[in-house]
Amino acid sequence: QQAALFNLVATLAKSLPLLLFILFACYWFDPVTFAADQQGSTLAVPVSEQVRNTMLITLWVFTGIEGAAVLSARARNRRDVGTATVLGVVLALLLYVLISVLALGILSRPELAALPNPSMAGLMAQMTGSWGKLLISVGLIVSVLASYVSWTLFSAEVPFSAARHGAFPAIFRRQNRNGTPIASLWLTSLTVQTCLLLVWLLGKGYTSLLLISTSMILVPYLLIGLFLLKLSFSKEGESGQGRGLMRAVALVSSGYGFWLLYAAGVEYLLLSLLLYGPGLLLFLYSRRQLGADLCLSGRERLLAGVTLLSLIPAVWSFAHL
What we know:
Helix content is 76%, strand content 0%. It has 15 helices and no strands. Helix 4 (55-61) crosses helix 11 and helix 11 (206-232) runs antiparallel to helix 12 (241-271). The longest helix is centred in the middle third of the chain and has 35 residues, at 130-164.
């Protein structure tokens, strides 16, 4: 509850610099600068390839839209979960589009590419001077701290919920006196620190970790779309217009999921097994705890075996990335 209140205040605080940037960018927007080289011919890369190359980054910036669903068990009203998810996606999309498009009317593409991170601070300095750069930098610090709190909540909740449904060992259902899933929090925190340590020891950059994380998200997103498609053809799905809408959403989401897998490529999908493998071992251990009547079928055992064996080329690929 305390973290949720902090996150609400931080969200409001970090939104103010973004809105100010959009207002200044609208004033400084130059149509001539925006219209120059719209096809990106100086990149010598087709537009379709440009789109494909940015898919993982684009997906990464929207990662977390499922946050309301992750914490839905703690909501007073379940309808608020759907409202929060849709509203969050629309507002985030609006901010990203406005900031990205308006920036192209302030500086040319080569000049934007040459800006040091955070690039928005450099753009703000072009329009307002040093105080604007300071404002964006402070907003970025607030945003990072708020995101850290949010992701700590999300990541701790997932193993806790999985343990309640028998997919993770029972120890992850343990809570402290404040209702925090303490065992789950330890697991996720140590996992994050291990990943950061591996990236540092192997000389990998933040982008490598980002692409691996995004590739891991692709599989659940695709499976959710396919399950909704299966549900739309079953007796459990809605009837009439509701079933038609469900089927249309399922087809679009499944198609988008397959497109993302294609855009990501096999390499990063293979790298995602570095974290799927240990998770699978935890899942198998928890199934064994629950008894023989929940044993895996022959096909499921085969898939589990292939996944674990794929860890060998995954480790080799990560070391040579």
